[in-house]
């Protein structure tokens, strides 16, 4: 889905839907009250967010995993597998699985460390324990009461913040902002703080500043004519990346998050790019959802998360993994 405009601005639709958001909160409370969380035998680091849509969780997971791998830890990654047909628990195999099977994000994660998808997160954690990992990093799950994390990182997109501050469906919040903060050991604030979210965090929770940096190969797009497209939580983030690279954007199309691309759809984008003397470009997350025959026709712009203060990030992670 695409986030409705009133999730950012508020207004009468948000007010009208506020009673429905109370039902959302009651449902979440009942689920928590009736669930006994599983505590894995190894440290579990939860990387989550408070809002629906993309905040930068997956790049944060990859950054955390990279730091732990560099220190010699046996890292396992856990995902729900959103957008995939398999319920799991199953270990992701990029040579055998497609995005339609396991979701797009797990395919990206599996290139870094053993990755398991499971709708039942506790079952997924048990499978990773059987595989023999000594630390689990979970992509999303801050609102999932089935696991007891050792450490929680709350990821916030500095450009979007928490929108109008209301709960789904009146706003983008999955749970009240204060509840998300209370269960988090640190906030990962990605990009420029355009909404003043840092002031709403206060002094009780450390803030780790970070940015999404394009891969060095993307620098070749400077002054190039491009036609961009993206089906991610906030497609405008990709447009901003292209602008930051100095590319000349001749067109841009935003799709729903996790959009399954059809061959004809991609060919139309590629043909339009050719007609504009441009190249078609998309994100790494979108690339794994492209039809196999179309991937060579589209340039992938990969990004990675970089900590503003790596020492501060390592100090937070040390609370869970020495």
TrEMBL record:
EC number: 2.7.1.130
Statement: the UniProt record of this protein carries the keyword Cell membrane: no
Pfam families, per database record: LpxK
GO cellular component annotations of the record: plasma membrane
Keyword field: ATP-binding, Kinase, Lipid A biosynthesis, Lipid biosynthesis, Lipid metabolism, Nucleotide-binding, Transferase
UniProt similarity note: Belongs to the LpxK family.
Protein name per UniProt: Tetraacyldisaccharide 4'-kinase
Species per Swiss-Prot/TrEMBL record: Thalassobaculum litoreum DSM 18839
Reactions performed catalytically: a lipid A disaccharide + ATP = a lipid IVA + ADP + H(+)
């Amino acid at each position: 889905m695409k986030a409705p405009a009133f999730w950012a601005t508020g207004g009468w639709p948000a007010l009208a839907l506020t009673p429905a958001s109370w039902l959302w909160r009651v449902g979440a409370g009942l689920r928590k009250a009736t669930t006994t969380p599983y505590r894995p035998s190894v440290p579990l680091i939860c990387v989550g967010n408070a809002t629906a849509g993309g905040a930068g969780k997956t790049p944060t997971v990859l950054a955390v995993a990279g730091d732990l791998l560099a220190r010699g830890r046996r890292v396992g990654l856990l995902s729900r597998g959103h957008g995939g047909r398999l319920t799991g628990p199953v270990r992701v195999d990029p040579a055998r699985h497609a995005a339609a099977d396991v979701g797009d994000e797990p395919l990206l994660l599996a290139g870094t460390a053993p990755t398991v998808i499971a709708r039942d997160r506790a079952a997924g954690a048990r499978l990773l324990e059987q595989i023999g990992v000594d630390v689990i990093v979970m992509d999303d799950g801050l609102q999932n009461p089935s696991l007891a994390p050792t450490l929680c990182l709350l990821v916030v997109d500095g450009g979007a913040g928490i929108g109008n501050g209301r709960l789904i469906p009146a706003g983008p919040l999955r749970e009240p902002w204060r509840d998300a903060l209370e269960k988090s050991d640190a906030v990962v604030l990605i990009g420029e703080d355009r909404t003043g979210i840092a002031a709403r965090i206060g002094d009780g929770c450390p803030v780790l500043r970070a940015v999404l940096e394009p891969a060095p190969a993307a620098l070749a797009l400077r002054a190039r004519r491009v036609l961009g497209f993206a089906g991610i939580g906030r497609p405008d983030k990709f447009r901003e990346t292209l602008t930051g690279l100095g590319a000349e954007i001749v067109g841009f199309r935003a799709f729903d998050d996790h959009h399954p691309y059809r061959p004809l759809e991609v060919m139309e984008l590629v043909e339009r790019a050719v007609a504009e003397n441009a190249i078609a470009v998309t994100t790494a997350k979108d690339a794994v959802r492209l039809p196999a025959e179309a991937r060579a026709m589209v340039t992938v712009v990969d990004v990675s998360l970089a900590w503003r203060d790596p020492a501060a990030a390592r100090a937070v992670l040390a609370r869970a993994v020495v």
